[in-house]
Design goal:
By secondary structure, the protein is an all-alpha fold. It is built from three helices and no strands.
Length: 78
Amino acid sequence: MTEFKEVSTMAMSLPTESRAELAEILIQSLDEKKNEEVKFAWLAEIRRRDQEIRAGASVTKPADQVFREARERLRCMK
């Protein structure tokens, strides 16, 4: 019997509540890897944008202007 099959069989023999808890733990472990990938992707994006700003290749706006424009756009959507 393969290790996967053995573990699966053991898991299926657990009470319902224990299986649900195990399923939650396994799903969270997948999300942690995904969250790490997202974290690294955002860090790369932040670095890229920072380089653009420092090189003068990107135009920035003051935060109050950005928020004002966002509020105006949201008002138009109603």
